[in-house]
Every structure is written in structure tokens, then in C-alpha cells.
Amino acid sequence: MPIRIIPSAGRETKKRINAKRRLIETVIGQLAGQFAIEMCWARDLWHLSNRIARKLLSHTLGIFANFQQGKSQRDWLQQANVIGCQS
Fold first, then answer.
1. Is the pTM for the entire model greater than 0.70?
2. CA distance linking residue 56 with residue 35, whole number of Å
3. What is d(CA 55, CA 71) in angstroms, rounded to the nearest whole number?
4. Which residues of the chain have pLDDT under 70?
């Protein structure tokens, strides 16, 4: 479903916003798949927020370590099986 952006926004602005949206959706998909974040049995807000923060930190450190090894974002996404191995 296309996002309705300000009608006067230029083509480049729409492309940048769409690229950011895709990246955010990819990260959410990674978190859901790798960390089972959709099923959380926390009984209060403190434990829920702490659990989510740990998972986000773990994900961020994984990406950082991957980039430190000189790999691209596409390599990280393929390694995490988020995208297919298409050329």
C-alpha cells in the first residue's frame, strides 16, 4: 500500500522515504524472526521494555560487528535470511 506523502514532495523525497520505510520493515522482520519478539510473556511494563531493549541492543551489535568485518548491509540481510540470495 503506497504511503500518501505531501503531494508537493518531489520524486527524490518520496524515494528516500520509501527506502527508509523498507529498512525499518526489514529490521522489524529480523527482530521478529531472530528473537521471537512477537511472543513476550512479560508481566509488567518494566520487564517488557527491558526485554525489548536487550533485543534491540543485540541486533545493533550484530550489525555493527558485521560492518566491522567489512560486509555490506546486503550481506548481513542475506546471512540473517531476511532476503533471498538473488544476484
1. no
2. 9
3. 22
4. 1-8, 73, 76-87
